[in-house]
Amino acid sequence: MAFQLIPSNTKIDFVRFRFVALIISALLLAGSITAFFTIGLNFGIDFRGGVTVEVGPADGENFDESSLTAARGAVNDLNLGDVRVQNITNPGGEQGIVAFIEAVIDSEDGDTRQNEVATQVQDALKQALGEEISVRRVDVVGPTVSGELVQRGVTALVVAIGLMLAYIWFRFEWQFSIGAILALTHDVILTIGVFAVTQLEFTLAIIAALLTIIGYSMNDTVVIYDRIRENLRKYKQMPLKDVINLSVNQTLGRTIMTSLTTLLAVVALFVFGGSVLRGFSFALIWGVIVGTYSTVYIASPLLLQTGVKRDWSEGGSKVDTATTV
Amino acid sequence: MLRFNRWQTIGLAILMVLAAYVTMPNFFPKDDPLPGFPGTGLTLGLDLQGGSYLLLDVGTDVVIDQRINNLRADVRTEFRRAPRVRFTGLEREGDAVTMRIPEGEDFEAAESRLRRLSRPLTGAPGRDLLVTSDAEARQLSVTLTDEAREAYANDAVDQSITAVRRRIDNLGTVEPSIQKQGDTRLVLQVPGDGDSERLKSVIGRTGQLSFHMVDDSVGFQEIQAGRIPPRRVVYPSSDGSGTLALFETPDVTGDMITDASAQPNPDGGGFQVNFAFDNRGQWRFADVTRENIGRRFAIVLDEQIISAPTIQTPILGGSGRITGRFSPEEATELSILIKSGALPAPLQVIEQRTVGADLGADSVRAGTIALIIGFVAVVIYIAFTYGRFGLYADIALIANVLLIAGALSLLGATLTLPGIAGIVLTIGMAVDANVLIFERIREEVASGKPSVAAVEAGYKNAWSAIVDANLTTLIAALIMFQLGSGPVRGFAVTLGIGVITSVFTAFVITRVFAGGYVLRARPKTLKI
Fold this sequence. Notes:
The complex is a heterodimer of chains A (325) and B (528). Chain A is α+β, with helices and mostly antiparallel strands and 325 residues long. Chain A is 64% helix and 10% strand. Chain A has 11 helices and 6 strands. In chain A, a hairpin with a 5-residue loop joins strand 3 and strand 4. Chain A is elongated. Chain A starts with 17 loop residues before the first helix and ends with a helix. With 528 residues, chain B is α+β, with helices and mostly antiparallel strands. Chain B has helices at residues 6-23, 46-49, 60-80, 107-116, 146-171, 196-203, 220-225, 279-291, 328-340, 357-411, 417-446, 451-483, 486-521; strands at 43-44, 51-58, 88-93, 96-100, 129-134, 139-144, 177-181, 185-191, 209-213, 232-236, 243-247, 252-253, 257-264, 271-277, 297-301, 304-307, 319-326, 347-355, 414-415. In chain B, the strands form 6 sheets. A 4-stranded antiparallel sheet of chain B has the order 7-8-2-18. Chain B has a 4-stranded antiparallel sheet with strand order 3-4-6-5. In chain B, helix 3 crosses helix 5 (146-171). The longest helix of chain B has 55 residues, at 357-411. Classes of the chains: A alpha+beta (325), B alpha+beta (528).
């Protein structure tokens, strides 16, 4: 038994909403950029450098409220500057305690110092909570590496957007790539914005999520563009506005369907994947929603602004005959 | 387009069986493999099995610096050999060693003597030294060539790999993996629930061991006042109890030691380290101890005195012991350092990621649960939406997971937690190709095509969008692979493989079933 979520012949006038969408997006973008510069991102140690030590109770035991106080006291006594000690629930469900220590940057031997700090913190936690506690995670990122990771992360994003631009240009034409890239950048900025507002930790994994969002949003956009191109060939006289509306409507079923299956998968990751993947899957959930929105309301209507080539009869004639049956 | 001949179908079936075949070994322990199956299999990343990842920076600058300092001594030795060359102002200036040849001395002869020091590099093209001269100012300058710097740095990195491996093997840890990354870095990965602090302290020390006679004529006051006679050095003791002046030239060095081990000190508290010399070390040590009975010698490790006993009797047997109030761990560590030999260059840990085995196991569990739930949710949803065709897409989805597992096993890839996330995400996105096709078929049906033609047109017309859409994700995955490290790479690998296999399964496998169905049943109306 087939079930159709979106009727095949929707006739929603998406293009009409483009100014509303533009205002909404502009507000969201402004908000994101403001949040980025005022609140700022809560960078993880990947990018800021520093030490994270996570400990769990010894086998068969549990941490209680006094454990956190004891741990906090012990770590604070080390006088390491900016230190956070908090409870954490592990994927297995049991409580743990995690200590974050800010990087000791700007000193000649920052890397050496960082390692000493890691040792001190572990010793202090063992003293406060007992020798038997299990050290679940130790991350140390020295100033050299964190600088490189920032650089690599930014490079990856820029290269990704650049390659997407080139790809669309190559497959379609430049008007299309402008729309696609604006939509992509929109998605990336809004995702960064939501991380600034929620103060979720921004780690290397989030960069991976951003790259995936870029790929995903692009994927969505390309499918609609593909249809627009096809319809431009088919209906040579139809106004561009109507062609865009027709194409978005024709692909709406697919757009919603794919977003929903992807959301099903990433929500499963978010709920069941454990704390390590939480930020990552949160970024993906947000990215899928924003990406779908931007494809429909930003990338496609933008073609009205940039204009497109109407005559696609030359080049790709093979596809042309196939589609104009 | 919808017809597959028998061989094509059999080929697809064989492909699936092969994927299952190479995936099977993953479900059995490595040390107890299933007979008749290949040795393929995934490796769990350190974030899943627990272990330490260390990024080490090899201090090649120190090596180069040392070489340039040695150069000064080499020049002095060369010019003092007969026929002697007079020189003044021999000193290091930046990366070069410079000197002046006084008037009356043959400048050209001096220059050619200096040039004679330069030798071809071993294992690399070019020579080691670069001599520049200024006849007017009677200045000579010698420095390392760029090739030599590179060769020395490379040697240091390569030797570091060997040295680190030896130390970790001596620590008794299982299968460390050491790889060179870039020009001067090493990636060290040690699986297991070992103590990362211990690991770091074992590889973080240079381990330069030497034996020096103590110069007891230099007293505490002199050391305090900095009145140190020439060719003496002052080192602190490792327990912080004071400093001693030693003769600069060591009598015996660490490379003359062949073995070392820790054991409890039979004469008192604590542990001691026993060591054995090679022949050369045995002779030297015997000579030194015979000639210096009643005096003290110092055992120096990385410019710290770890012990300074008084020589009671000549030690002729070629073995000795270092006593001190060592804890068992300290003694073991010390014996490992002594036995493994010195690092050619200091190593600095610049990044560390350690995951405990229990957190790793938790992550595996959480990842697997997320994978299963995500998979089941998508499968049900698709079947619900597209009915019969949805079931075909579900078969393709199962085939897709099988192919991903097969490809990863065959490649012997490392599965990380983000890698599992990549598979989950791929499951969600893999359906996209089928959605594109099915939605297209719906449209073709709506435009009044008969069922067979509609299905055929659906596949044909969706192809361009499928390729375009998946290539973008593939590009993103490639960038992540190129620029990412460790876990991110794991994600990129599974995402990239998943994209490729999903296009294949969605476009080919569903077509076998969908084509078979419409050609056989020729339904009047297509329920999709």
